[in-house]
Amino acid sequence: MGESYWRAVFLTLALLCISEAAWATVPQTQNVILVTLDGLRPEELFSGAEQRLIDKDIGGVSNPAKLRKAFWHEDPLVRRKRLMPFLWSVIANEGQIFGSSDDDCEVWVRNGKYFSYPGYQELLCGFPDAAIDSNDKIYNENTNVLEWIHDRPEFSGKVAVFSSWDTLPYIINSKRSGIHVNSGWQEFKHGADPVRREMLNRAVGETPHYWENSRFDYLTFAGALEYTREHQPRVLYLSLDETDSWCHSGRYDLYLEAANRCDRFLRQLWEFTQNSEGYRGRTSLVVAVDHGRGSGREGWKNHSADLPGSERIWIAVLGPDTPALGVRKNVEASQGQVAATVAALLGLDYSGLDNRIASPLPGVLPANIQFDSLAD
C-alpha cells in the first residue's frame, strides 16, 4: 500500500477524533445540592395525603378537619401538588422524577435491610454493603461519593454536609474524609450574618430536644443556608429527618406537615441558587430517600425487610444539564445510582472506580457527556 493510502487513513482517524471531541458535551453544572428526605413514601409523593390515615385513631391526627382542608382533594394530582407544590410545579416541569409505579418507573433499594444506615450507605457509596446491618454509630469503611469528590483539588474544602440525624457523620466517615459536617444538636460555627447565627444557636440550645439523636429540620436547613451564604460550597448535602421521625411517633399529620416544610426548603434553596451569581445556571439539585415505608393501619409507621413497600423509593433531579422529561415512564432505577449521578452532573465518572458502583440515573444527562479523568 502506498504512502497516499496511509495518509488517507491517518487523516480519517484524526477527523473522527476531532468529530468525537466536537460532539462531546461538557456539563454546565458546577455545583450540586443533594437533599435527602428520610423515609418519605412514594405514596404521598405521587398521590398526596392518604385519606384513611387522616384519622385520630389510625393516623394520630389531632385535628383531621384542619389537615383535610390543608392537604386533601379527591384528585390525587391536586393532592400531591398541595403537599409538595415546588416539586410538582417546578421539578416536574423542568426536571425529572423517578419512582411512579403508575408509570412503570420503579426505584428500588437493593440492600435488603430497608432502614437508614444501609440506605445512606447505598445512596452515597453507590452500592449496598451486607456487613452494614444496624444504625450503630460505627465509622463506615467504604468511601462515599462526597469524600471522593472532596479529595479532588478543585473541590477540597468545598463539600459540606448538614444533617438532622447525628449518625450521618459516621456514615460518611467525617473523621477520615475531612468534610465539614454539622449534625444533630451541634451548634453552628459558620454564617455570613453573626446575628442570624447567634439566633440559630440560641434555638439549638433552647428548643426542646424532642428526639435525642435528631434536631428539627428547620435548624438543619437554616444552618446549611447560612453556611452556603458564607462559604459557597460546590457540593452541599442536606439530610433531613422529620418525615421519618414523625411516622415512628405515629403522627401522620406531622409527617405531612414535615413533607410540606421540606418542599418549602427545596424551593428556598433553589431560589437562593438562582439569585446567586456563583450558582445561577450552574447548579443541579438531586432529591432522594434512604428507604420506603410499609402501608396499612400500622405499616406506614415503620420500615423493614418484613414490611412490603420499604424497598420502593423515589428520586428527583433538576438542573441545567437535565432534560425536562417530568415524571419518568417505563424505566427502572435504583438507590445506588444517586452517587454516580451526583458525580456525573459535575463531569466526574465515579461509577468507573469500582464495578460495584451503580451507573448514573438514565436520561438525566446527555448520552455524550464528557467526563474528567478519574481521581487517584
Structure description:
This protein has 376 residues and is α/β, with parallel strands linked by helices. The protein has a single domain, classed as Alkaline Phosphatase, subunit A, CATH 3.40.720. 40% of the residues lie in helices and 11% in strands. It contains 16 helices and eleven strands. The protein has helices at 3-23, 42-47, 56-59, 64-71, 76-83, 85-94, 116-125, 145-150, 168-171, 174-177, 194-206, 217-231, 242-248, 252-274, 296-299, 337-345; strands at residues 31-37, 96-98, 107-108, 159-163, 180-183, 235-240, 283-288, 312-313, 315-318, 326-327, 333-334. The chain has an eight-stranded mixed sheet, with helices on both faces.
What is the number of domains?
A: 1
CATH superfamily: Alkaline Phosphatase, subunit A
Ends: how far apart? 43 Å
Number of strands: 11
**Assigned CATH architecture:** 3-Layer(aba) Sandwich
Share of residues in strands: 5-15%
Question: H/E element string?
Answer: HEHHHHHEEHHEHHEHHEHHEHEEEEH
CATH topology (fold) name: Alkaline Phosphatase, subunit A
Please, what is the average pLDDT? Answer: 94
Number of helices: 16
Broad structural category: alpha/beta
As laid out across the biggest beta sheet, the strand order is 5-4-6-1-7-9-2-10
Helix percent band: 40-55%
Taking pLDDT < 50 over at least 5 consecutive residues as the criterion, the unreliable ranges are none
Major sheet attributes: 8 strands, mixed
Question: Class, according to the CATH hierarchy?
Answer: Alpha Beta
Shape: globular
The radius of gyration is: 22 Å
Keywords: Signal
Signal peptide: 1-24
Protein name: AP protein
